[in-house]
Specification:
By secondary structure, this protein is α+β, with helices and mostly antiparallel strands. The chain is built from one helix and two strands; from the N terminus they run αββ. Helix content is 38%, strand content 13%. The mean pLDDT is 80. Keywords: Signal.
């Protein structure tokens, strides 16, 4: 049981690190306005 919990915790940590990985720099984020339907590219957020 202890090995199972360790495996679950390790996979949760790996998934959380993967979620924080930065996107590729050449990707553009497309946003659609819910009010008018206009699509535009959102400004990139730099940390």
């Amino acid at each position: 049981m202890k090995k199972l919990m360790t495996l679950i915790m390790a996979s949760m940590i790996a998934v959380s690190f993967a979620a924080c990985a930065p996107m590729k720099t050449d990707e553009q984020v497309r946003v659609k306005c819910p009010a008018c339907g206009y699509e535009f590219e959102a400004p990139k957020h730099h940390n």
